[in-house]
Amino acid sequence: MAIAQPGINEFYRASGEMHRWYFSLSDLVLVIGAIAGILGGLRIYTNWQSGKHHHIDAQVMGWFFSCLFLILVGAFLRALYGIS
């Protein structure tokens, strides 16, 4: 006699909720990252224009690697949760 396993429907429901929330949160994180990236770029631009060149290289590298980190973390989380 085949008896349905308890919790299967709840598992599918929780999986669907997780996918829905993940997409909402990933969109929010990308928007926050875009705003932070624009503000970081503007800060570097104003420092360059005002003649504060002594730490521009460090600021540009920090800005670049923070953008790269944001992209890689997003890809890692998508792979971790199996979301394509």
Summarize the structure.
The chain has 84 residues and is mainly alpha-helical. The protein is built from two helices and no strands. It has a domain at 28-81.
Word description of this protein:
With 84 residues, this protein is mainly α. The protein has a domain at 28-81. Helix content is 81%, strand content 0%. It has two helices and no strands. Helix 1 (8-49) runs antiparallel to helix 2 (56-81). The longest helix has 42 residues, at 8-49. The two termini are 37 Å apart. The mean pLDDT is 79.
**H/E topology pattern:** HH
Structural class label = mainly alpha
- List how many beta strands DSSP finds: 0
Q: What does the average pLDDT come to?
A: 79
Sketch the major β-sheet: none
Q: Treating each run of at least 4 consecutive H or I residues as one helix, how many helices?
A: 2
Distance N terminus to C terminus?
37 Å
Gyration radius, to the nearest Å?
21 Å
As a percent range, the share of strand residues is under 5%
Low-confidence stretches: none
Fraction of helical residues = over 70%
Shape descriptor reads rod-shaped
InterPro entries: DUF4134
Protein name: DUF4134 domain-containing protein
Keywords: Membrane, Transmembrane, Transmembrane helix
List the topology elements.
Blueprint: H1 8-49, H2 56-81
Helix pairs in contact: 1-2
Q: Can you give keywords for this protein?
A:
84 residues; mainly alpha; 2 helices; DUF4134 domain-containing protein; DUF4134
